Known about the structure:
The structure holds two protein chains of two kinds.
Chain A: H1 6-9, H2 24-60, H3 65-69, H4 83-114, H5 118-132, H6 135-150, H7 155-180, H8 183-191, H9 196-207, H10 209-224, H11 251-259, H12 264-294
Chain B: H1 16-19, H2 21-34, H3 40-79, E1 89-90, E2 95-96, H4 99-130, H5 133-148, H6 151-178, H7 193-217, H8 221-229, H9 234-263, H10 266-271, H11 289-296, H12 303-335
Helix pairs in contact in B: 3-12, 4-7, 4-9, 4-11, 5-7, 7-9, 8-9, 9-12, 11-12
Amino acid sequence: MNFNSAAELATPGVPQVVIPPMSWRRRFTDKAMTAVAALTVILVLLPLFAIFAYLVYKGIGSINLAFLTQTPKPVGEPGGGMANAIVGSMVILAIASVIGVPLGIGAGIFLSEYGRNRYGDIVRFVSDVLNGVPSIVIGIVAYGLVVMRQKHFSALAGGVALAIMMIPTIARTTEQMLLLVPQAIREAAYGLGVSRWRTTLSITLRTAISGVITGVMLAFARVAGETAPLLFTAFGNQFWNWKSDQPTAALSLQIFTYAISPFDEWHRQAWAGALVLIVLIVGAVSAVRIAVKHGTLSGA
Amino acid sequence: MSNQALPRPRFDAPDPERETKAALKIEARTAPLLQGKVSEIPDAVFGWAMRLCGIAVVAVLGLIVYQLLIGSSLSWHAFGFKFFGQSDWNPVEDQYGALPFIYGTLVSSLLSLLIAVPLAVGVAVFITEISPARFRGALSFTTELLAAIPSVVYGLWAIFVLVPILRLYVQPFLGKTLGWTGFFSGPPYGIGMLAAGVILAIMVIPIISSITREVLTVVPQHQREAVLALGATRWEMIRMGVLRNARAGIVGAIILGLGRALGETMAVTMVIGNRPEIAKSLFAPGYTMASVLANEFTEATGDLYLSALIEIGLALFFVTIVVNALARLMVWSVTRGQPAKSLV
């Protein structure tokens, strides 16, 4: 059927509503705003690509065996590397994980299994508040807690600072993941006569383990690149250090020191360090993701 | 085992079924599992261990407040409220005033929001309302990658890429066209308040846009359909049906971004110029509360010096807590109790 005008469509006796054609202004505004929105996406993605491109471009050329195996050389001498900083970062992160992961997961279990009440709400609010505390302030606290007592900067102090930053993230993601486990599964376990703690650990946590691990990795990735809380806790070190109560080098600290230095050689190494840092973070996160998906934990 | 809850007729004779060997065997096997008494102690221990972890979270916050209060008491007694109103920062004469740092923190954060908010909201709108569904996941993942880059790497990039661009192109242009306002005057160093604002903007965009996205997706679909049915264009639908409904949540997202910008340390320290001065021009170097802590904390020689720095930390702590609590309330008012996803 073909109608040539609105008049032909109209039923006799029914008042006719004429919809005016859309004004060019409205159509133009629509198109313009769509374009603006697309433009913002481009503007936001631009720095992202610029950063990655620069990182790879500047970093790759400076990474060599010496960079990965040697300690920093004094100013003016070419060569040297960040081996001690790479190891130092790993030590600090290991200490942070040993303290932060059990506490965080424990707090998460408390929130989901025991904290569906007023006390849980308090802990939930406090952990959200902790999440927003600037990292440099946490550095001050770790300084007062550990450095002042030990009388010197140490990997332990750095680890404590990073652990404090990990706890709220891990607690909240663990809680959310455990809450996704259907109540019926818990009840099935109780019905078989399994005790509550056994149910929580072997049934609930095990069901949600991949999500919990993702949360842990999120927290890990977040603190792995942190510099501010390490400035006056781990402090940095130009040499090898194997003691947890001595100033320890960290990759992020070394990048900072080198970036604000006036020496080209150090700038080059800062880029290389930044590339190594990102590769380590991404590597650690994807390794755990893959382990969760395909490896020993896949049945969990 | 017999079910005690059900009324059973009483038999004088022993229950014949219970006497059989097979029944006894089954009971022997199941009894330990079914009797709650066996596992009460480990249950209690585990329950309290988990509660202890919860208490630890609260204790950590208490510890932070305690450490900051103790550490800053010396400076508090020496200067009182004047500490926040004085602009004299002179470690040699032991005179400390936090005003230049407060000013620098506020100006750099607000400047960053000025740049970041339109971009972040634009990205969120594009991803949720305009982009084809198959690009949605990839786009949001890529924008959130921005949040995964460590602060020190942002700083590094800012020193060697952003600052030269600002110095060579952006600042001369701004100086020529808008120099008369006074905000864009003076020599174009590159390093300064403007550079800090720009790098901060790049860093807070993923936070604002991811929460805005979350807020936009909870706006009910029928709101969109209603506005479209009235003959609105897509943009009118976004403006009237989506953005207006999500207002409170978007403001919350912006304030959360502000919270992050206020406490951001490394990237800002690397490009802001680190001079405790209050200047009108955005080209001039400045200093923020977080930066002064990063730069001077390990070098603070006197007790009063250290205490003054810790007091700045205390002020920063309280400001960010108030800002964050406010933001969470606003986001919560839109997403109705669904907790905002963990913020990277």
